[in-house]
């Protein structure tokens, strides 16, 4: 009876202090080495109205550098449909708002372990992830997908030229609009200056004219 109990226990989820569930990760089915992820339901009241809904967001620690957002999305999709995945260097609020830039102009991403926010389409997926047996590893990616990602990482000159041209057109447009705004502001200041000069001249003339 003892061996059967041990086998049964190994099929249970492993929960550690802090409420994190341990998930094992393997590069592929033939890999011997495993990596550990630590997940729990995301519950931050200050982000209740953000794009990280508390009832559908899984907070993930210790995501390896080779695991991209696309890979993480596929890996966690076994628990249900994934709406979005966000990887960050540190826990916290969402990425700073600002103009969205092409990947060719963004600073190089830091190659280190990350934290993640996985948003599912259904809240039941959170329970499925938290109850996943720790001895059943998640597969990171297949070899074909890695080859595809490697191929897509190359920058095609035609696409890059289009992106550069589009960026420069936008830059020239914003610069022209800024210049026009400056010209209008200078013209308005000149107009006001001339009006003030006429007003002062009129006041001086009125002081010199004394009919009595």
TrEMBL record:
Key word Transit peptide present: no
GO molecular function: RNA binding
Coiled coil: 179-206
Domain RRM: residue ranges: 56-129
Family, as annotated: Belongs to the RRP7 family.
Keyword terms of this UniProt record: Coiled coil, RNA-binding
InterPro entries, A to Z: Nucleotide-bd_a/b_plait_sf, RBD_domain_sf, RRM_dom, RRM_Rrp7, RRP7, RRP7_C, Rrp7A_RRM
Protein's UniProt name: Ribosomal RNA-processing protein 7 like A
One cellular component (GO) term of this entry: CURI complex
A biological process term (GO) from this entry: rRNA processing
Classification via CDD domains: RRM_Rrp7A
């Amino acid at each position: 009876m003892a061996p059967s109990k041990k086998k049964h226990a190994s099929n249970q989820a492993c929960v550690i202090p802090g409420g994190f569930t341990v998930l094992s990760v393997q590069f592929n089915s033939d890999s011997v080495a495993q990596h550990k992820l630590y997940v729990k339901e995301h519950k931050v009241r200050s982000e209740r109205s953000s794009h990280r809904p508390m009832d559908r967001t899984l907070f993930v620690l210790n995501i390896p550098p080779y695991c991209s957002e696309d890979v993480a999305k596929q890996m966690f999709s076994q628990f249900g449909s994934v709406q979005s995945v966000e990887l960050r260097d540190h826990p916290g609020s969402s990425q700073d708002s600002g103009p969205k830039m092409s990947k060719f102009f963004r600073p190089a991403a830091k190659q280190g372990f990350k934290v993640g926010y996985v948003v599912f389409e259904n809240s039941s997926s959170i329970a499925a992830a938290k109850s996943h047996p720790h001895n059943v590893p998640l597969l990171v990616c297949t070899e074909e997908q890695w080859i595809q990602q490697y191929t897509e990482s190359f920058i095609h000159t035609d696409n890059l030229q289009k992106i550069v041209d589009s960026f420069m057109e936008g830059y020239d447009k914003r610069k022209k609009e800024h210049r026009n705004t400056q010209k209008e502001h200078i013209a308005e200041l000149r107009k006001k200056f001339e009006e003030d000069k006429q007003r002062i001249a009129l006041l001086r003339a009125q002081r010199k004219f004394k009919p009595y």
